[in-house]
Every structure is written in C-alpha cells, then in structure tokens.
Amino acid sequence: MNELEQARQTFFEESRDMLRQIEDALLALESGTQDPETLNGLFRAAHTIKGSAGLFGFDRIGRFTHEVETVQNERLAAFRKNRDKTAAAKALDRIRNACRKDENVMPALVEAAHDKCTLGEMVQAMADVYGRYSGGPEW
After folding, report:
1. Could you give the CA distance from residue 105 to residue 53 in angstroms, rounded to a whole number?
2. Prediction pTM value
3. The Cα angle at residue 31 between residues 28 and 34, in degrees rounded to 5
4. Torsions phi, psi of 131, nearest 5?
5. Closest to 90 measured CA to CA, from 123, 55, 125
6. CA of 132: how far to CAs of 91, 98, 135, in Å?
C-alpha cells in the first residue's frame, strides 16, 4: 500500500470516528443537552471531515458540509436579527463591567442569556477584559 492509499485509509478511519462523534452530539442535543461544547465538537468534527475530504477530491462531502455550515450561519444571523439589539449590547457591557470590577460575573451571564446573547458573544465579552489563553501544555 503506497503512502497516498495509507492516507486515504486513515481519512476513512478518522472520518468514521468523527461521524460517531457527530451522531453522539446530535443525540445529546436532541435529548436537550445545553452543553455548548457538544455543539462546538459537532462543528469541529464536521469541519475536519470537510477539510480532509477536500485533500482527496471528495468534493460532494465538502459541498454538503459547507451547506450545513451555511444553514447554521443563516440561523445564527436570523437569531441575532430578531432579538433586541440594545438589550443584548447592554447585557454584554454588564459582563465586561463585572469582569473589570472583579465581581461575580454569573448574574451578568444569566441576564445576557435571557437577552439572547450567544455563548460566543458572552465569551468574547469576558475575553475583552481578561484576554484569551494562548498557551498550551508545556511538555
């Protein structure tokens, strides 16, 4: 078996594993989980399959995954469009202020969720104050 064929076999094996992860995530979401990491893991797995599929010329897989991402982006845009933008902006400011004052940020996070802020927006509001961890294991 040549290197290209070995790489294709690895792609198929890893894709099967990622499809299992996607299935598990979808079942968890369907059962009502609120864990944002479940949704993030689902999209990471789909994105990885899409990128790897492109390396081997599996364009239909790439197109399908792209379509799913497009639908999700459209849903997110509609969600943001249909909320009270002023309330969401104020809620994010309350998160930043709580972080700056070294206060308990949880009440501000709960308010932001009620004001329909996304998890990404809430995390970004905290990162605006605290920054983002960019290190990794130092082995």
Report:
1. 42
2. 0.59
3. 65
4. 85, 180
5. 125
6. 20, 17, 9
Measured CA to CA, the distance from residue 94 to residue 90 in angstroms comes to 6
Structure tokens at 18: 């990622």
The Cα–Cα gap between 71 and 63 comes to: 12
DSSP string, 54-115: HHTT-HHHHHHHHHHHHHHHHHHHHHHHTS-HHHHHHHHHHHHHHHHTT---HHHHHHHHHT
pLDDT in tens, 55-101: 888 889 888 888 887 888 888 888 889 999 999 999 999 999 999 99
Residue 83 phi, psi dihedral angles, 5° rounding: -105, 170
Task: Give yes or no for a contact between 115 and 84, defined as CB atoms under 8 angstroms apart.
Answer: yes
- What tokens were used for 25? 């995530």
Could you report the per-residue pLDDT of 1-44, keeping only the tens digit for each? 788 889 889 999 999 999 999 999 888 888 877 677 887 888 88
Domain 3-81 is of which CATH architecture? Up-down Bundle (1.20)
For the chain, how far is it from start to end, CA to CA, in angstroms?
34
Domain ranges of the chain: 3-81, 85-130
